[in-house]
Amino acid sequence: MVLPPELTLFLTSIVAWTALYLIVSLSLNLEFGFTGIPNFGKALTVMGGAYVAGYLPGRIIVQLTGIGGGKDYIAYNAEIVREVNLFLSQNLGYSVMIFAATILLAAGVGAGLGFIAAYPAIRLREEYLAMSLLAMAEVGKVIGYNYKELVGGTLGVQVPDPLASIEQGLLRFTLMSLIIMGFAVAILLYLQRLVKSPLGRSLRAVRDSELAAETLGKDVVRIKMKVLVLSSVLGAVGGALHAFYTGGVIAISYDRVVWTFWPWVMVLMGGMANNIGTALGVLIFVVVRQLIIFYKDTLAPFIPFDVVWLDYLLLGGVLIAILMLRPEGVLPEKPTYPLSKKIIREIRERVRARISSETLEE
Amino acid sequence: MALLPPLYQEALIFSSLLTLLSAGLTLTYLTTRVPNFAHGSFATIGAYVSLTSFRVLQLTPYYLIPLAFVLAGAVALALYKLVLKPLMNRGSSIIFLMIATIAYDMILLSALNIYADYLSEGLKVTSRYFSLKVADIRIGGPTGTPMVFYGSLLSAVAVIVLLYILLTKTRFGVAMRATIENPMLAGVVGINTDLVYTVSWFMAGGLAGLAGVLISLWFIGNPDLGSIILISIFAASIVGGFNNIYGAFLGGYLVGFAEVFGQYLLARNIGAWIVPYRPVIPLIIMVATLLIAPYGLAGVRWRELGRRFRRR
């Protein structure tokens, strides 16, 4: 089966963006949907992961191989990264190592950021927390944008391509998309297990009534901290994967619209506190957006302004409509049972049998 | 001759405008209990009214201040009436209300960008990163103090005085305070709480529109002007105390002075590279306030604090 290249590219980008946003939205769903922490600074952790991917892998390879001859990594970025990619294309082992190391380090940085975010999160009321986290993310962007050494400031940096050994072009993008989708599916399965576990029920208890959870002996502070660290790790992994996918990092693209507001729209559209719902929300969102981008040139002559703004206008309107008409989303939250359905059925039948035998004896 | 060195002018202008913005933000928070993430964009509306008046209508922007006030006020009122009130009636949580204001901000941001595109494509007017310093009147000759300096100071002082008179000397002001203290009880004694909310939102938007016109006469204007200044507005309101309208004035001047002088002193002592990191200053102020005195300066019980120090 051979698809025309245009269609393949379209499908590939849908797979990649669905996977990337799935990771970020699921982590937001864990914070907001299940635990009730309004993280208005989701962009911060995504940014952290992307900064790691922009800063580290290239420099590590330069250190190990001496590529570039001691030239400044940022000033000669394009040149050095081209040589690094050439090196990676002949050394598959290095490619795999550098990819794994970056993801792990991004996860570490994410954990650190989550820990920082947890500091206000366990002390402040929702509205103050939302304002502080939003401000933190904005400041993170300002630092990345101005501190050139990190990710090249206004110009951005290129990220070495771990798939350099593969023929560049469609095949590379398809493979990268599938790798990211692999991560996303693994995270989805893990979170599905997590929310059905006793910890998952504790999260909902904290969300619904902190006081009640505390009275029942749940350590609310520890639970919130755990959730923020875990979800920030996931966000940062998403950010690093995004950097590898696009092959570059520029601080300005990690703003509060794209990496905070959109994930919120996806979670609320699909259904908060429902991972499958969130996945559905991500899919709807990404497909509609990719269609808008795909038909941008066709649409352009009919509207007298940049199509991007139509996009923003639509999303703002859609979100308000969701909040008013169906705040529970497409797939509302479902009660989860501590045991599997089969065991519950068996227990029910056993109890029924006992009751009926008891009534017979009387 | 200029009255004051430019640095002091800049500090006073910025702080006064911040004051107008944070007073509005605090006012809406006091009534509806939701921090409005779209507040910055109300000011951007004022900036674009100013741009339109000078570049399209060839009028000094000061003439169109009433229009900016009404327009931004109406946009703020629409947020309350069409979005927040229905959501509150549904019993939505504060998180939903906050995300709704962000969604509204998105709509405003795109509307402003579309208008900016229309100005630049249709009317060939520079509508991004524009400066309207030339539009301002200079008092005392061509090198004199710009009018915006007096304008911003005067409006900040006028607003605080008028607010004080409104809240303490008029029947409606007393009704407003009652509604802020306890909306349920105020409703029971026959106060039209919805009217109080309506007036608060309109005033908050109007003040932001006024601030926006004045901002455009001194600072660079762009569609994202409001979303950038939003952090400073939040910091000013938080440091002053989100539960006290007069705190917003204190906070506005504190954050404004800290930003302008802090940036200047750091740049002089450490190096010019530090200049773009200015947004870090309000963040630090905001976080420090929330951790040390979460109810802001107006929430600190000064007398008790003084007594405790004296005892030591």
Task: Name the features.
heterodimer, A: 362 residues, mainly alpha, 15 helices, 75% helix, B: 312 residues, 12 helices, 2 strands, 72% helix
Question: Helices, strands, pairings?
Answer:
The complex is a heterodimer of chains A (362) and B (312).
Chain A: H1 5-34, H2 42-65, H3 77-90, H4 92-121, H5 126-146, H6 148-151, E1 157-158, H7 170-196, H8 198-208, H9 210-215, H10 220-246, E2 248-249, H11 256-270, H12 275-294, H13 296-299, H14 307-325, H15 341-361
Helix pairs in contact in A: 1-7, 1-10, 1-11, 1-12, 2-4, 2-5, 2-10, 2-11, 4-10, 7-10, 8-10, 11-12, 11-14
Chain B: H1 6-32, H2 39-56, H3 65-89, H4 94-122, E1 138-139, E2 145-146, H5 147-169, H6 171-181, H7 183-188, H8 193-216, H9 225-240, H10 247-269, H11 280-292, H12 302-311
Antiparallel strand pairs in B: 1-2
Helix pairs in contact in B: 1-5, 1-8, 1-9, 1-10, 2-3, 2-4, 2-8, 2-9, 3-4, 3-8, 5-6, 9-10, 9-11
Structure write-up:
The complex is a heterodimer of chains A (362) and B (312). Chain A has a domain at 5-254. By secondary structure, chain A is mainly alpha-helical. Chain A is 75% helix and 1% strand. Chain A has 15 helices and two strands. Chain A is globular and about 90 Å long. The mean pLDDT of chain A is 86. With 312 residues, chain B is an all-alpha fold. Helix content of chain B is 72%, strand content 1%. Chain B has a two-stranded antiparallel sheet. The mean pLDDT of chain B is 88. The A-B interface holds A 32, 36, 38, 40, 120, 123-124, 126-128, 130-132, 134-136, 138-139, 142-143, 145-146, 256-257, 261, 264, 268, 304-306, 308-313, 315-317, 319-320, 323-324, 327 and B 34-35, 37, 83, 86-87, 90, 92, 94-96, 98-100, 102-107, 109-111, 113-114, 117-118, 121-122, 227, 231, 234-235, 238, 273, 276-277, 279-280, 282-283, 286-287, 290-291, 294.
